[in-house]
Structure formats: C-alpha cells, structure tokens
Design a protein that fits this description.
Number of strands of chain B: 0
Number of helices of chain B: 14
Order of helices and strands of chain B: HHHHHHHHHHHHHH
Largest sheet of chain A: 9 strands, mixed
Radius of gyration of chain B: 24 Å
Oligomer: heterotrimer
Chains: A alpha/beta (about 375), B mainly alpha (about 325), C mainly alpha (about 300)
Structural class of chain A: alpha/beta
Number of helices of chain A: 11
Shape of chain A: globular
Radius of gyration of chain A: 21 Å
Helix content of chain A: 25-40%
Order of helices and strands of chain A: EEEHEEHEHHHHEHEHEEHHHEEE
Shape of chain B: globular
Strand content of chain B: under 5%
Helix content of chain B: over 70%
C-alpha cells in the first residue's frame, strides 16, 4: 500500500535524480562512475535504463533505495529524490522503511539471491513482516511469543497468496522447500514475490532475466507487466538487452559511461534515435536486414573510468566528434516533448540542462 | 548423504590398518631394547631373555604384528613392558583426562574466539579488526610449551590462585568415578568444593590449549562471515527492508554456524597434538603424557595402543563433524 | 603492447615485454603495504634474517655458544653485560639465543624445501595420473595426516635416534602430506582443462605437461602455504628440542634451552623466558608476513571492494 499519499502529489515525479556525481575508491585509483545523471520517473512509468556493462546503470538505480555501499562509493554532487525527499541524506531507519514499503528490488542472479539455509517460507515471511514493521516477530526470543507467532502465521498466509500470484505451482507444498530445490525461473518468481510483497510504489528490476533461459524470460516479463497493471507499479528496468525493453517499457533512457545520453518514449528512441551512441546500439541489434548486410556495432571500447575522456565521454568513439566535444560535457537538449539528447549536434534546440530529461508536462506519459 | 557416508566408512578400516602398520614398523625400527630398559641395570641376562620371550619380542616382526592385531581385534590392547599394566584400561583412564581438557579448552576458545571474529567482520579493516587479527596470529605463534612454563612462573608463587600442575588436589576428596570427567563427577557427587578444585586445576592447561582454538576460530570464522556478507542474498534482504541487526543475528549466524562446525573437527584434532606438550609441562595425566613416556621408553604396546587410539579418536571426531555439517546444511541433507 | 623497435635498449625491451607483470607487481606491492600488520611482519622477518646472517660477527660472547663453561658465573640474572642472564653453565643466554635463530631458520628452510619437493611431486603424480596411483598416494597421505603433527615427528625421531638431521627428516615427513594434498586437488581439477588437452594435442609428454604447464599455476598456492608453514616448522623443531630429540647440545636451541630452564624456575626465570620470547617474536614475524602474503596472493581470499 502506498501510504503517505497526503505528503506526496501523484502528479509530481516519483523519482528525481539531479546532477548526480558518484566516485568509487579502488586499489588503482578513483573511478568516476557517475558524471551528472539526470533522470525522472513519474508514477506509472515503465522506464528502461539501457547501456553497456559498466556504464553505471546499476549504481544509478541502486542509488534510489541507497543500497550502494558507501565506502567505497562516494556521492560528490547532486541528489536523489524519492517522493520529494533526498534519499542520500536519510538515516538507517528511514531508509529501512523506504525499502520495506515503497521500493522493491529484483536482482539479476536468482541463484544466489536466496539464503540457502533457510526455507522459502522463512525468507518470505521475513520479507512480509518487515513490510509491516513487525520486526520483533523476526527475532529469536520475542518472535516466539504468541503475538509473534500469530503474525508469522498471517505472514505465511500472505506468502502463499503471493506465490500463487507469481505463478509458483503447488505453493502449499513448495513453500517449505529450500532454495536449491527450485529452478532459476522459479527462484526469480519467488524473489519478485518478495519484492512486491508490500505493494511498493517503485519496482527496480536489475537485469531480471539475464540469467534465465529465453522462454523463461518471456514469462517473467509477462508477470511483471501484469503486476504493473494490478498494483499500479512504476518500474525501473535495467538491462543491456533492447528487446527486453521493447516488451515492457514505455520510456527509455540510454546511458553511456556515467551519463544519460538520450531519453524519451519508446517510440521516439526506437524510431528516431538521435544520439550517435543510441544509433549505434540500435544498429547492432540483429534483424533481418542487418543479418543480410552484416552486423555493425559501435567501434572502440568503453572508457576506463579511472581516467575518463574529458568533455563528452563518448567522443573517442563518435563518428561526429568535434573539438568542443573534447572539452565540455554537452547539456541535454529537448528536441520534442519528452525526447532529450545530450549531444552538441543538436545545439540549436532548447536546453534543459540540469533539469531532468525534458519533462515539462504535468500529466503522466502515455503508455 | 548416504552414499557419502558409505564411502567414508569404507576408507576408515584402510586408514586404520595403514596407521597400525606404519606405527608398528616405525616403533620397531628404534634401536634399543625396551626390555633392558624396563628391567633395569641390575637385571641378569637370563631374566632379560625370559622377559623377551614373555612379551613375544623374539619372534619375527610380521608374526609379532599379526599377533598384536589378532589380540587387538579381540579387545586386548596388550600390556606395558615397563609398568605391567593393561594398555586398554590405561588408555581409557588417560584419554578421559585429555578429553575433558580438550572439551573445556574448545569451549573456552569458542567463547573468546567467536565474539572476536564477529567484531572483526563487523568492523572490517578498522582497529578492532587489526587487533583481533593480531591476537589470532599471536596466539598461533606462541610456543605452547613456553607459554605454559611462563604461566607456571607467574602463578607458581601463589598456588592458591591457580595451581600450575596436576589435575586435582591430592588432599581433597577425589570424586567417585562415574564418567572419568572430574567436572561431571564432582557435580554428580554434589561436592561443590571438589568441583571448584577440579575447575581451578583445569584453568591454566585449558587456557594454553585454547590458544590454538582462538587463533583458528577468529581467523576462519571471520573469513566465513566476510564471505557470507558479500553474498547476494544479504543484499536482497537489505533491499526488502530487513534491518542490519537482524541480518547479522539470524542470517549470518546460521550460515556461519555451519562453517564453524565444519572447522571444529580440524580444531579438535589439532589440539590433540598440542596436548602432548601441555600435559608434559603441566603434568596433566592425559594420553599425551602416556604416549610420550611410552615413546621415550620404547614400550611397544602402549605406543601402538596410544597411536591407534588417537587415530580412531581423530577419525571419529572428523566423522561426527561431517555428519553434523551435512545435517545442518540443507543443500546436503536434502540432496 | 606497442611493437618494439630495435633502437630501444635491452632493458627497455624487457620492461615492455613484461609490462603486465610489472603492473601486477606494482599493484601487489601497493596492496601489501596497505596491511599494516603484514608490513610489520616483513620488517620483523628482514631483521631476523639480517640477525641470523650476521650473528657470529657481533654476539657478545661467541665462545659461550658452543661450550665454554664458566661455573662461577652461572645463573646470573639479566644485566647490561648479559642481557638475558646466564644459564646453568654460566653461558650467556643472549648469545645462545641469537645463534639458535640462525640454526632454526636454516633448518626451517631445509625442512620446507624437502617437504615441498616430496609433497608436490607425489601430489602432481597422484592428481595427474589418477586411478590407482591416486588412490594409493592419497590413502598414504590420509594416514599421515591422521597423526596430529607432533606425534609423527616424535615417533620418527624416536625411531631414528636423536640429532638434528633426524629431526629435520622427521619434520619433513610430517609436512609433505599437506602439500601433496594441496597439489593433488589442484592438478585433478586442472587436468581436464583445455590448455592441458591442447598441450597434449601438440605432442607434449606427460612430464613436460606437469612441469611446464601445471606447476606454474600452483606456484602461488604453494608459496602461500609455505609462508604460513614456516613459522610452524620452526615451532616444531623447537618442540622436538624441548623434548630432547631435536638439536643436540652443545648446539643452542630454543626448545632445549627452555627445557633445561624448567629445572630452575621460578628462581632463575630468565633462563626459560627469554629464549621463548625471542622464539615467539620470530614465529610471529613469519606468520604476520605469511598472513599478509596470503591475503595478497590467494585468489580465494581476495576481497572485492
């Protein structure tokens, strides 16, 4: 249940990331992972965050529930606002509540996401109890009191319902099983069930299908789509696979080496990609035409974040690079409503610099 | 789990057989005549010959081996040349002393080591971690016989605080032997004074023994905890809103428990090795001392008996550990 | 890697060819120095090595080491002239302790070299050829590993007689099973890997495969284990000396000194205390260093940020 509706206007952005800069301290130096991220999510959006490995999409998303461990990471500028409040400044218990009640996360690898020595029942009950703030019921001694036991029983009933909803067959029997007795696809369903247990406002799915077979992928994506409709989920989907985005999302943001280089609706990005990198990505998708003519990709390699290129980080690989690309990071230009590009090629257009991705409209986007 | 057990049970007799062979060969390679040693400088030659024949030491080696193994399988562990006592009964008495020492020292070691490991993992790379790593490496570097002596020097002035040798006060009431474990027996007798005495005599030897346990537990448990902390399911739990303290108490503890148990077998058998020196220095009447004096007097039957006994003990401990481990880890239990 | 033109000097060429190794080395050094305890250990070890090598040059009473007896000066407490006091034959405990360092370190190295040679060879053979060879060797290893360390060493020295050579042999025999097991497990795993099949496909013989392809991969693990074991080897030698079956008098040995000193406690406490203290520091230094090396090299122990 999305509580606190009074404090939050549904027509305002659910998530607003503004000029976010983040560094990671490693043995070899300081990696400048995020270089000024601007991203906005409105309720009901299904945003696909797309980019190569290492472009920073995971850390961007994980910044929203502030799950990035802070040494070695370090936020140097900007803010991450969820429901209007800066997440980076919140204390432990506020964050815990945020994660329990408003944000659900599904991670990439279902094989390791569940604790192997606890049953599904125990883990799901824990997840459900934490949503209800029934923390004492989880702890050894106080949890054995009648009140604790009763809450756990209720949690188990909820868990059964959730398992049924996500499509786990014979939930009454399987709930007592251990994770290793489940297949990858089933485990992912369990994890999704745990993530949506508290009817969160936002579901962050970090490459949820990458570790699964193609056939299972489709099932999981369909499940997520259904859940979006049922409980009014806003989804932030991270992936490097554009076809997955096509199945689920209505908006897309493309990231490269710590920046959002282009964002817009699904149609805009797919039909008229403006940024050279986006174009390269789309061209790299095997389709009938490209298979006939030969695959093309984006030449070159992802930059070393310890010493990234100055200016626009794509400039070494960009076929249209100019002198100014090497000196100044281009601001985001709005080409049409909701379609923003960070590239000097579009200098003439309206600048929407640090203010998000061109979202001026008050109404939520079309699906 | 069952096929795994079966394989283990099959290798045990082979290992024991090999053990007995190796020990037999080695102990009979020793130059020197145990009979002469036992009989003393005054013995007449014909006495020595008679004793030798009595103990079967004039027969060819393979025959001696077979005789020994034959009797062993019937439960007869032989007799000591020097003391004329039955090896079997001696072993039991001495072993319970070592057993008590080992149990107490393991508990003590866990009591100190587990919190140290948790602190170390929780505040990784900060000063508590460095301190506990220093303690761990320090404990394992301490020469066990030396620290025992130093403690004897320190506490030797005032024996009422902590006695420095022996297992029990000769002037106090020795309890009735129910189990052979003094702590248990004194409690069963209801004699609290004797219990206190037994406890006081245990402290220093157990402390010396526990050093190795502390060292191992601190380091291994810390590594396991850190390993678990990196696992994805911890991140998932955090993302689902489960607070840190619950992650630490419920999740980590159960996962780490499995790791600790698997370590215990190794730790206990390691202690049996150190027991020799500590028992020697602090005059603890355990199997270490028994084996040592047997080795120094070339007394074959006790040497064989002690070695085989310890070998069996180690094997049993490892087996129990593996069983407990496979019971605790659901992946193996339900495989 | 840029192509090397012939106008570059040989050193520059070597550096360019091995650039990646140099890079790893630098990273390794940086990581090592971050761990303060390891650096302390390194310092201790270097100091000890220097002491051990130069000892004969500067110890205050070199004659005392092997035997001159000064019965008038026996059992004197520590003074500025006799830092650790004198023993029951009037000899300077400090000089003897330092010389014992030299002997212990030498013996320790020999023990490990022998143990590693035997263990690695047997382990490689067992793991590579598998089948019966593997079973036999591993059962033997299991048997030897069932003995808690000191028992085995004790038994062997009892069998062979007292003396430093036999002690070395005994300890080597105690130590090789550990390496055998380590190597066998790794070789067993590596045997099926592609690079081995590839080597065989181009006609490499078994011995060549083992030595040139498999062993280098094991080097790290062996070094890690050896650095951890060295301290224990030294402890083992001292333990044997303590019981009386190791280094024989008049050669100085920590264990022997502590053992003799027992008879004079608590009055002449320095006799047992100082050699032990020095031994403790030695072993501590090596263990700290070994621990640091292990953190650095052991792939399992490397922790991601």
């Amino acid at each position: 249940m999305s509580t606190g509706a009074a404090a939050y206007n549904h027509r305002e952005p659910l998530v607003e990331i503004r000029d976010l800069h983040m560094e990671m301290v490693t043995f070899d130096g300081v990696a400048k992972v995020l270089n000024g991220i601007n991203l906005t999510l409105f309720p009901g959006d299904r945003l696909g965050l797309v980019g190569e490995t290492g472009c920073g999409k995971s850390v961007t998303a994980m910044s929203i529930p502030n799950l990035v461990s802070q040494p070695p990471a370090r936020y140097t500028r900007g803010e991450v606002r969820f429901r209007g409040e800066n997440v980076l400044r919140k204390g432990h218990s506020e964050l815990r509540e945020l994660r329990a009640k408003h944000i659900g996360v599904v991670f990439q690898d279902p094989m390791t996401g569940l604790n192997p020595v606890f049953t599904i029942k125990q883990q799901m009950s824990d997840a459900i109890l934490s949503r209800e703030d029934a923390l004492s019921a989880m702890v050894p001694f106080r949890g054995w009191l009648p009140s604790g036991r009763q809450r756990r029983r209720k949690a188990e009933a909820t868990a059964l319902a959730l398992l049924r909803r996500v499509g786990v067959p014979e939930p009454e029997r399987r709930i007592h099983a251990y994770p290793h007795e489940f297949s990858g696809g089933m485990r992912q369903r369990v994890l999704i069930a745990m993530a949506i247990a508290g009817r969160p406002d936002l579901l962050i799915a970090d490459e949820p299908t990458t570790a699964l077979d193609v056939s299972v992928q489709a099932q999981i994506l369909r499940l997520i789509t259904e859940l979006v409709r049922e409980i009014n989920l806003t989804v932030l989907l991270i992936t490097h696979n554009i076809s997955v985005v096509a199945q689920l999302c209505n908006r897309v943001a493309v990231m490269y080496a710590g920046n959002v280089v282009e964002s817009g609706t699904m149609r805009q990005i797919v039909q008229s990609p403006k940024h050279p990198y986006t174009r390269g990505l789309l061209q790299a998708i095997p389709t009938e035409e490209t298979l006939r003519g030969g695959l093309s990709g984006v030449p070159g390699a992802v930059p070393n974040l310890l010493a990234p290129p100055s200016g626009c980080r794509f400039n070494p690989r960009c076929p249209y690079a100019q002198e100014k690309c090497r000196t100044v990071l281009p601001p985001t230009y709005e080409l049409e409503p909701e379609h923003g590009v960070a590239c000097v090629l579009y200098e003439g257009a309206r600048q929407v610099a640090q203010e998000g991705t061109g979202k001026q409209a008050v109404n939520p986007s079309e699906s | 789990m069952i096929p795994f057990l079966r394989r283990r049970l099959l290798t045990i007799p082979i290992v024991l057989l090999g053990l007995s062979l190796v020990t037999f060969t080695v102990s009979h390679l020793v130059p020197g005549d145990p009979v002469k040693l036992a009989a003393g400088p005054q013995a007449r030659p014909d006495q020595i010959v008679q004793l030798t024949r009595e103990f079967g030491l004039d027969r060819p080696l393979p025959e001696q081996y077979l005789m020994y193994m034959g009797r062993l399988l019937q439960g007869d562990w032989g007799q000591s040349i020097s003391t004329h006592r039955q090896v079997g009964s001696d072993l039991l008495i001495y072993f319970t002393a070592t057993f008590e020492l080992t149990i107490v020292s393991t508990l003590l070691g866990l009591l100190i080591g587990v919190p140290l490991a948790i602190v170390s993992a929780r505040w990784r790379d900060r000063w508590p971690d460095h301190l506990s790593r220093f303690v761990s490496i320090g404990a394992i570097s301490l020469p066990v016989f030396w620290i025992a002596i130093v403690l004897q020097i320190v506490f030797g002035q005032n024996l009422h605080v902590l006695p420095v040798s022996g297992r029990f006060d000769p002037r106090a009431n020795f309890p009735i032997t129910h189990t052979g474990l003094l702590l248990v027996d004194t409690l069963l007798d209801g004699d609290m004074h004797a219990f206190g005495t037994a406890l006081r005599y245990l402290i220093l030897p157990a402390f010396c023994q526990s050093l190795i346990v502390i060292a191992l537990v601190t380091r291994l448990l810390r590594a396991d905890l850190l390993d678990i902390l990196r696992k994805d399911f911890v991140m998932v739990a955090r993302a689902n809103g489960i607070p840190e303290y619950i992650i630490w108490t419920r999740y980590l503890m159960k996962n780490a428990l499995i790791a600790t148990v698997s370590m215990l077998g190794f730790v206990i058998s390691f202690q049996l090795g150190g027991a020799v020196l500590i028992e020697y220095v602090m005059d603890w009447p355990g199997i270490g001392q028994y084996a040592l004096s047997a080795a120094l007097t070339l007394d074959f039957q006790p040497i064989m008996g002690a070695t085989l006994f310890i070998g069996i003990a180690v094997i049993v401990v490892n087996l129990l550990t593996d069983l407990t481990y496979s019971f605790l880890d659901p992946r193996i239990r339900r495989a | 890697m840029a192509s090397i033109t012939s106008s570059r000097g040989p050193i520059a060429r070597w550096r360019a060819e091995h650039a990646s190794y140099i890079y790893d080395l630098r990273r390794g050094v940086r990581r090592f120095t971050r761990n303060r305890l390891s650096v302390v250990g390194l310092g201790m070890v270097l100091t000890l090595i220097v002491i051990a090598i130069t000892a004969p040059l500067w110890i205050p009473y070199p004659d005392d080491v092997y035997g001159s007896v000064h019965m008038d000066a026996r059992l004197n407490p520590p003074t500025p002239t006799h830092l650790f006091g004198t023993d029951d034959a009037g000899r300077d405990v400090f000089s003897r302790t330092i010389m014992a360092t030299q002997i212990s370190l030498e013996v320790g190295i020999i023990i490990l070299v022998v143990a590693i040679s035997i263990g690695v060879t047997l382990g490689a053979i067992a793991g590579y050829f598998g089948g019966w060879t593997d079973e036999v060797i591993m059962r033997l290893t299991d048997i030897m590993l069932t003995f808690p360390g000191i028992f085995l060493a004790l038994a062997i020295t009892a069998a062979l007689g007292r003396g430093i050579t036999n002690a070395m042999l005994a300890l080597s025999i105690t130590w090789w099973p550990g390496y055998c097991r380590l190597v066998e497990a790794q070789v067993l795993k590596m045997r099926e890997e592609d690079f081995v099949l590839g080597a065989r496909a181009i006609g490499a013989g078994n011995a060549r495969i083992i030595v040139r392809h498999l062993l280098p991969n094991l080097l790290t693990a062996i070094i890690v284990k050896a650095s951890m074991d060295f301290g224990f080897a030294v402890l083992g030698l001292a333990s044997l000396g303590f019981i009386g079956v190791g280094v024989q008098p008049p050669q100085p040995d920590w264990g022997a000194m502590i053992s003799t000193g027992r008879h004079f406690i608590p009055a002449s406490w320095w006799y047992s205390t100082f050699p032990g203290l020095f031994m403790f520091f030695t072993v501590l230094g090596f263990n700290l260093l070994g621990d640091g090396l292990r953190d650095l090299l052991d792939p399992n122990a490397i922790v991601r940020q």
